[in-house]
Write a structure and sequence with these properties.
The chain has 130 residues and is mainly alpha-helical. Helix content is 59%, strand content 0%. The protein has one domain: Alpha-helical ferredoxin (Fumarate Reductase Iron-sulfur Protein, Chain B, domain 2, Orthogonal Bundle), CATH 1.10.1060.10. The chain starts with a helix and ends in a 6-residue tail after the last helix. 29% of the residues are buried.
């Protein structure tokens, strides 16, 4: 019961922090994913459109996911988005929230994926707390 209350508090707080009214205008056209260098390198591990789509219903799962930490913050998705949805900023807000609430497993998993799948991560993408 305590765990369920914690989840509800996290979801309520995130709904106040994130602009769900703006996020709901996503056309799900896939331009964010098509323009994403990380999605091109590791499509089996990262899809910004799917992450955005799952956000309203699975916030705690997203806070625990490696996918949240794989965004390279290149802003290509936002630059190409017909709705100008700022996914990097949304993901950054979620990252900060995850750190504040002790959800580190996704970050460590993202580092593991990068080490395993991307031969030169410094020139391809990065994962950081900024």
């Amino acid at each position: 019961m305590v765990y369920q209350n914690q989840i509800l508090n996290i979801e309520k707080t995130l709904k106040n922090v994130l602009d769900f009214d703006k996020l709901k205008f996503c056309f799900e056209c896939g331009i964010c994913t098509a323009s994403c260098p990380v999605a091109e390198l590791i499509p089996e591990h990262y899809n910004p459109r799917t992450l955005l789509h799952n956000l309203p219903s699975g916030t705690v799962d997203i806070l625990k996911s490696a996918e949240l930490w794989l965004c390279a913050w290149c802003n290509r998705c936002q630059n190409h988005c017909p709705q100008k949805i700022n996914l990097p900023e949304t993901f950054q807000t979620l990252r900060k929230f995850a750190v504040e609430h002790g959800y580190f497993e996704g970050f460590y998993k993202a580092l593991e994926i990068i080490r395993e799948k991307i031969p030169l991560p410094a020139s391809s993408c990065y994962v950081c707390f900024h």
